[in-house]
Amino acid sequence: MPTSTRKGPASVPDPIATAMLARSPVRQSKPLRQEAGWEVSSADTGAALELADLTPITKVLVRASSSAVGSSFSDFGRARRDEAGHLVVGARPDEWIVFGKAGSAAATISQIEERLAGAEGLVTLVDVTHRDVVFLLSGTDARGVLEKICAIDLSDRTSPDGTAFRSRVAGVSCLVVREDRDGRPAYLIDADRSYGQYLFDVLVDAGAEFSVEVAGYTEVF
Amino acid sequence: MRQRGATRRRPQRYSAFGLLRHGLRHDDWPRVWRTSELDRRYDVVIVGAGVHGLAAAYYLASKHGISKVAVLDKGYVGGGGSGRNTAILRSNYLTPEGVRFYERSMELYRNLAVDLNFNVMFAQRGHLTLAHTDASLRTMVWRAEVNKLQGVNSEVVSPEEVKRLVPFMDVSNHARYPILGALYHPPGGIIRHDAVNWGYARAANALGVEIHQNTEVTGITVRDGRVQGVTTPRGEIAAPIVLNCTAGWASLVAGMAGVKLPIITHPLQAAVTEPVKVFLGAVVVSGSLHVYVSQTDRGELVFGASTDPYASYSMRGSLEFTEELASHVLELMPSIGRMRVLRQWAGLCDMTPDFSPVMGTTPVEGFLVDVGWGTYGFKAGPAAGEAMAELVATGRTPELISAFGLARFEQGRLVGERGAASVGH
Amino acid sequence: MILLPCPHCGKRNSNEFSYLGESAPRPTETGDAKLWRAYLYTKENPAGWTRETWLHSGGCGKAFLAERHSVTNEVRATWLPGRKEPDTTTEAGS
Amino acid sequence: MTRSPRRLDPRPGEVIDRNRRLGFSWNGKRYEGYEGDTIASALAAAGERIFSRSFKYHRPRGILAASLHDPNLLVQVGDEPNVRAGYRKLEDGMAVSAQNAWPSLNYDVGSLNQTVARFLGAGFYYKTFMKPQRLWPAYEHVLQRFAAGGKVAQGAERRDCDKRYAHADVLVAGGGPAGMSAAIAAADEGARVMLVEEEPGLGGHLRWGTPDDLARLAELRTEVAARPSIEVLTYSLVAGRYDDNWISVLQRGLPQVTERLVKVRAKVLVVAVGLIERPYVFEGNDLPGVMLSTAVRRLVNLYAVKPGDRAVVFLANEEGEAAAEDLRQAGVEVLRVVDARRGGGLLRARGRRGLDSVELQDGSSVACDLLVTAVGWTAPMLLLNASGDRPTYDEEAARFVPGGGLPDNVLATGGILGDGPVGLLVDHGRATGALAARRALGGDAASSSSPEAVPALTAAPHPALFRSGTRGFVDYSEDVSAKDLMAAAREGYDSVELLKRYTTATMGPAQGKLETINTVAVLAEATGRSIGETGTTVWRPPHSPISLGALAGRNYEPVRYSPMQPWHEAKGAVPIVAGQWIRPEHYGDPAAEVLNVRKNVGIIDVTPLGKLDLRGPDVSRLLNFLYVNKWSKLEVGAVRYGVMCGEDGVVADDGVTGRLGPERYFMSTTSSGAAAIHEWIERWLQTSFREWQVHVTSMTSAFASINVAGPRSRELLARLVADVDLSAAAFPYMNVRQGSIAGVPGCLMWRIGFTGELSYELHVPSGYGLSVWEALLESGRDLGAAPFGVEAQRIMRLEKGHFIVGQDTDGLTQAFTAGLDWLVKLDKEDFAGKAELVFESERPRESRLVGLQPVDPTVVPPEASQIVSGSSTIEGRITSSRFSPTLNRAICLGIVSQRCASPGTVVTVVHPDGTRTPTRVMEHHAHFDPEGTRLRA
Ligand SMILES: Cc1cc2nc3c(=O)[nH]c(=O)nc-3n(C[C@H](O)[C@H](O)[C@H](O)COP(=O)(O)OP(=O)(O)OC[C@H]3O[C@@H](n4cnc5c(N)ncnc54)[C@H](O)[C@@H]3O)c2cc1C
Ligand SMILES: NC(=O)c1ccc[n+]([C@@H]2O[C@H](COP(=O)([O-])OP(=O)(O)OC[C@H]3O[C@@H](n4cnc5c(N)ncnc54)[C@H](O)[C@@H]3O)[C@@H](O)[C@H]2O)c1
Ligand SMILES: Cc1cc2nc3c(=O)[nH]c(=O)nc-3n(C[C@H](O)[C@H](O)[C@H](O)COP(=O)(O)O)c2cc1C
Ligand SMILES: [Zn+2]
Questions:
Q1: Helix, strand, or coil here: C13?
Q2: Residue B319: which H helix or E strand, with range?
Q3: What's residue D301's pLDDT?
Q4: Is the model's pLDDT at D451 over the cut of 90?
Q5: How many domains does chain B have?
Q6: Do D243 and C81 count as a contact with CB atoms less than 8 A apart?
Q7: Where is the domain boundary, A127, A149, A174?
Q8: A144 and A35 housed in the same domain
Q9: Residue range D896-927, pLDDT digits in tens
């Protein structure tokens, strides 16, 4: 069945030249700057363990049956980069989240639409950039931090680089994606935006034991 | 029902004088209840030696002279919910029929020690149900108002009053769980649950009722829609009346008679701490935080929470129960974090859709139920036992329990206790 | 914290799941009160193997059916709604 | 500062650091100990003998086991009660005091109870204090004075505790020789191992053993340390084992936190917890100076403390001999060694404030200050019991052993299974550890060779020793003697479970670890049954008590905020908790907020509203099933109100849903119902309507939701919206449009409202929420634009007669009772709750929701006030009630019985203070603008 809802006002286009500022729910540490219309921190830490708020990044939800999507996307429970540099995450058996550069929702959506053109069954794309927060926890002790608040086995054996799962983190349902950086473990944590400040505070608290530092927005896509 | 002469004996009375005499003479007290051979036939077989079964037996014998009664239990007296509950008594329910019923039980409890000649240590310390949201405060007012109209002492009090009653309570302006007020029920309190079970067993036995422990009912014979008797590993027993008082196991026993119940069995857990010097008077309940706590005369805190989230007959207990319990109780009383949990356990609760019991007749003639006691049935034991005894003796369902019949589900006339009973105790 | 085997995610802590209760077919006939009330309120509530529906709400969000032992909490089979129910009549591993 | 007269010269295995002195106080006096001391060892070194007073009789008590489980060593440390002095490491500056004594530990008035002990047998309180009933509180007060234990302090700070999850292939509980070997072997198979030891150091009984034992210990420690895949947790207790090997470990001694609860999911659990020494039941067995052999060995060898000067040793095993040898080496005069294996016997111990002499079976009496008993072992069965095993009694060995009922994922090794020389324990541990790893790893285990057979380990023969007829204590912490148990059994409390509950034996802080075996033995003798038949009580977690603080951890409680939260906070909004959301209740004056909306324009943050994006060809079928009303004919751009019921016909939620495109809808739910409704929908789609093509996405947090309400709302909005024609004709009531607001594209605008005014509900991409909120206020300044909170909204919705699910309805309110006759369409094919609503429609109505107004307009009945007839017949209740600033009078909604429901009826409302208010039933729910002209403006 051809999809009927892909076209049309399916998504939030990127803000046109506007004075309006978009904000993460997390208080940003100074100094501040703007990134694709979002207020972000440009703090730099150089610490061995860092927590950064990446909320402005583009997040597009793709719903389709896995047979329809075929191998063009990552498997359920796995994350991988596509040619355009998007991080494609198999978030549920019939749902993917595509992470991309801040401010690139429209472009990302049309790229996905192109890729999925002609796919069988109902396929829908929803821009959830504003719905979710995304944090990046990276560094040698990142696992130690997450282990305090998440019950999933994070060892290399069961959760190697490229693993994605949904589970509870400090009582909030989250999507956790492991994408190591410079050979050090790193986790992207995607959660409902309204929990953003709470979750960020919890991560900082859990990380205190490992001297976590809050870093500014970094380009990961 | 016709009276049958059964053996009675006069138990040796308990008293301070008796203690003195026994202490001086160093002689033994008589047995609390005697063991006897299992007969082939009884006028009434009661399945379950919890407070409900034992109270029904006691009132059958004491009020109606029916003492050819056997109370059968697969384990020991009070080994079910009656021996594992947090022993909170109160009557501040939500519906008028609920309030009237539980108030009758409170009345019986108030005189129970004297009645049974067994100190059940009913401590009417006051019972506080905290409200953390507007909605729960509204429910508290609702309950208080219904209670007052039924003559039950119950009122909504301010956070300051809560602090006065429970100095350890943090009534400061919490961001997350502010205490907006509480339903205060001065006659509520706690009791020595085991003593209630033993006291009923002893008094019933003295009137001729037989108590058979380690005697599991494995089958119920029904012929032409009438109950004939029960099967046990110790043999078949004939009886024209079989009363199911098995709480968490009620569906299984009813199933033996071919009767289906609107019941799901959920574990409910409890825990005690090590004793510390007494600092907590009133019983404290928080519905939003799913916790209730009281301190016994021994100095332990006794805690409970809400039932486990899925159906199970497991009594093993879980770690998350104690974790949640601890975090919630510390939310209320932050300074007791150094107290230690000594033991946790679980019991089985027979949950009904409307948080109300099922008492009375069933489609099988002679097969009666006194079940559906969920998380709140210990306090109901005396009144339920009394009413069920009356039903057995007269064949008529007493007005007090008429709202709680099994037929209400088929008729779609549920009782509205959900708001007051869910975690209320 | 028991583990439940989600057919999609594998074994996960039970607090990630919503318990939807015994699986019972919804009556198609709306006029029969007895039938409806039985569907709404009457439960098998066995002490043993029971078939029930769970939703992995804190994980993949998917519903599945499970055959769980209500005394041991062991799960011996799971399957997706609409799929053929497994034949577990032989008392495996109880 | 007191000296340490009983401290010995350095011992080879000592764990104290003589270079690090620690000062502390005991009952107000200054003492000194060493790093590595326990509180008790430091006090014993200083010559202290009495550590506590017993629970009931206030008898003086001293060191018995010198371990975590010692029932006599519970002390108060600062504001922490019941600290195990035989276990807790001494810290500098600790303020330690005795708990159960008044006025002092040495002269305790409560000890007078001993003189009346014969009247205070187990359960005496059940037999007295019954009459008069009204005096019970006074009696109770007396009983409460007996309460054992320390004190909690009001205002004590919450301690810093935290938690961690962990995953292990093999978790080894107990770091004695068997446990250490198991860990080593499991690691060699490739397993991830966690080795948990309660004591501060690994080694178990080897730590206080012979030079050979110490050498062996050093080897094992080296082997463990060499394996990075073994995570060692010392000073850490395996506190419980739950279903699916969910294991709780309480870790102490960390730099960051006082205590940490580690929750471990282990593929296989190896139980290597060893044995606990069994106390001997005989008269005087609780006198200070009567100690277990292991206590003596610990004191001498670990802490270099001389436990007495002149000793008698009563023994039945090698451990007792080793203890006697230790004593001799420590310079203690060993006066007599009484060997039970050779017919020696012990009758009683005598003394008042401590042991003075012992009477032996041979009639002799020996003056001494130390009596050591070594009469056997008992196994701490908790972890095995929790795994489903029921212990059985081994007559030969006189102890309970595992019953063979363990599941595949639990194994036992070491002393809990049986005895043997250290070599055998090590071999057994190794084989068990390897087996555990193979079970955990399946085919991934390292060893390809055939599995090494696990050697047999059986409990060695041992005489059963106890004196049942005596006043000897079976349960020290509960003050229960063997005589008490015999009497209770004869009274009919003759099963182990009843006996326990009646006498409270095994119910104290040690939870039967020391007491169960003797309790069961005495009961067996009383009833003539064997110990095996008698059985034990149920073991329950925790293995040893753990603090509420550790169980609670950091107390992470999720909270949710809207994007406008910083603004609300800055403007001093009064917060209200709504589920997990924190939202503004008002900004100072809710009545003024109402009037401003009625007159000008107000804006409210309604972000918590549930929002669902629904797409696909079958959405309208889905809506038809979920809601009680019809949905087939909804035009694109149109919005409709709907109510959902459960299958029982009870009102479950309400909200509006709009059609944004041919196959695209947007649904709103109540804030509190959002998650449940989403689940409800998924449940139907996934289980019953699998062939329907619908994708549902929760969008609650994707949009900041702002309701702009009031006669000037259109004017305000027009200043910020360029791409949508806002005119009444182009954008009528109950419609939805998409466009930009203040330059932010992708916004939804609904013409709906709860307040009864012309109003627009705006959904703005969340990141821009705060900017748009500020823009609205900024550009509407001249229009009187001002924020309003939840309270003003509640007032206005009541003025308008909109009900709130869960407030004006309850858990049993079906749709018709809620007054939804106009909405429910029973002619629809099928929908959730239809069957029950058909039944409801067919039976006479019992009650209904109505609008009410007190006759006296100034009287506002509190919500939940009851409506009565006569003196106390309940006819209904007030569900919502407010003073309306708009109408300048009190207004209500309420549920009333059908006989009172007709408009114009005056009913009686009883206030909580007892006053009664005549109140009139109104024709409409709406008190204000019932025709709805304002909102359609
Ligand atoms: C942790 C916990 C806390 C609670 N707190 C409170 C509270 O504070 N206040 C309150 O009022 N209520 C409370 N309750 C509920 C209360 O304990 C029960 O509702 C009440 O004890 C039920 O009593 P009963 O006599 O009906 O059943 P039970 O006491 O459960 O007795 C049923 C008996 O039936 C026996 N039995 C079962 N099957 C068979 C068979 N086939 N043959 C023979 N015998 C059988 C069982 O062995 C058992 O002894 C709590 C319950 C629990 C578990
Ligand atoms: N236990 C003794 O005092 C003792 C003394 C001499 C000989 N033995 C013999 O040694 C054998 C026992 O050797 P083993 O290695 O099995 O035991 P062990 O007693 O040497 O070691 C067991 C270890 O487990 C620890 N432990 C107990 N419960 C724990 C828990 N819940 N969490 C964490 N750690 C816990 C103890 O602190 C101890 O260090 C027995 O056969 C016995 O006859 C024992
Ligand atoms: C009100 C109450 C208080 C209790 N107090 C104690 C206690 O102080 N010590 C203890 O070991 N157990 C205590 N228990 C728990 C019992 O030991 C036991 O765990 C419970 O009756 C369940 O039985 P089971 O563990 O044998 O299954 C208490 C139980 C109740 C109901
Ligand atoms: Zn899943």
A1: strand
A2: helix B319-332
A3: 98
A4: no
A5: 2
A6: no
A7: A127
A8: yes
A9: 999 999 999 999 999 999 999 999 999 999 99
D contact chains, 3+ CB pairs < 8 A: A, B, C
The pLDDT, as a whole number, for residue B419 is 57
Nearest C-alpha to atom 52 of ligand 1 is from which residue?
B85
For residue A141 the two structure tokens come to 């002790």
Name the C residues in 3-22 with CB < 8 Å from any D CB: 3, 18, 20
* B63 found inside a domain: yes
Nearest in space to D904 (alpha carbons), one of D847, D853, D837? D853
pTM for this model (two decimals): 0.95
> How far apart, in Å, are the Cα atoms of D27 and each of A139, B74, D37, D286, D891?
49, 51, 18, 22, 65
Strands B44-47 and B69-72: parallel
Q: Residue D635 carries which DSSP code?
A: P
In a domain, B8, yes or no: no
| CATH code for position A82 | 3.30.70.1400
Q: Are residues B335 and B358 in the same domain?
A: no
Query: Same domain for D32 and D97?
Result: yes
**Most A CBs within 10 Å, among D229, D556, D580, D762, to test the A interface:** D556
For CA atoms C7, C13, C16, C19, the dihedral sign is positive
With contact defined as 3+ CB pairs under 8 Å, the chains touching C are: A, B, D
List the 383-402 stretch of D: residues with Cβ below 8 A of B.
Answer: 386
Residue B238, beta-bridge partner list: B41, B229
**B11-28: per-residue pLDDT in tens?**
678 887 777 777 777 777
Q: Please answer whether residues B419 and D650 qualify as being in contact, where contact means their C-beta atoms are separated by less than 8 angstroms.
A: no
Distances (CA, A) of D542 to C26, D67, D386: 44, 17, 10
Q: Give the mean model confidence (pLDDT) for residues D504-530.
A: 94
* Subunit contact C53:D830, Cβ cutoff 8 A: no
Which amino acid belongs to residue D854? P
pLDDT, residue D131, reads 73
- What is the phi-psi region of residue D540: left when phi exceeds 0, alpha when psi lies from -120 to 50, beta otherwise? beta
Nearest to B265 among C2, C45, C52 (CB): C45
Structure tokens, C75? 């799960």
Phi then psi for residue A128, to 5 deg, are -115, 25
* Residue D451 lies inside a defined structural domain of this protein: no
CA distance D209 to chain A (A): 38
pLDDT in tens, D803-815: 999 999 998 999 9
Asked whether the predicted pLDDT for residue D344 surpasses 50, the reply is yes
Q: Going by C-beta distance under 8 Å and a sequence separation of 6 or more, which residues neighbour residue B245?
A: B46, B47, B48, B50, B52, B53, B56, B370, B371
Taking the C-alpha atoms of residue D721 and residue D194, their distance in angstroms, rounded to an integer, is: 63
Which residues lie closer than 8 Å to A167 by C-beta, 6 or more apart?
Answer: A150, A151, A152, A173, A174, A176, C12, C16, C58, C59
Do B and C touch (≥3 CB pairs < 8 Å)? yes
D163: tokens are 């938690």
D274 CA distance to ligand 2 middle (Å):
3
Average pLDDT over residues B247-258: 98
Higher pLDDT, D454 or D547: D547
Q: Cβ contacts of residue D401 below 8 Å, gap of 6+?
A: D379, D391, D392, D393, D394, D416, D417, D418, D459
Residues A93 and A62 grouped into a single domain: yes
Token digits of residue C68: 């769980």
Is-contact D311 D374, C-beta < 8 A?
Answer: no
CATH number, residue D621 = 3.30.1360.120
More reliable by pLDDT, B20 or D713? D713
Rounded to two decimals, the ipTM of the complex is: 0.94
User: Is residue B349 lining ligand 1, measured as CB closer than 6 Å?
Assistant: yes
From A76, A107, A127, the end of a domain falls on: A127
Residue A16 confidence (pLDDT): 39
Q: Which CATH superfamily is domain C3-79 in?
A: Folate-binding superfamily (3.30.2270.10)
Contact A93 C60 (CB under 8 A): yes
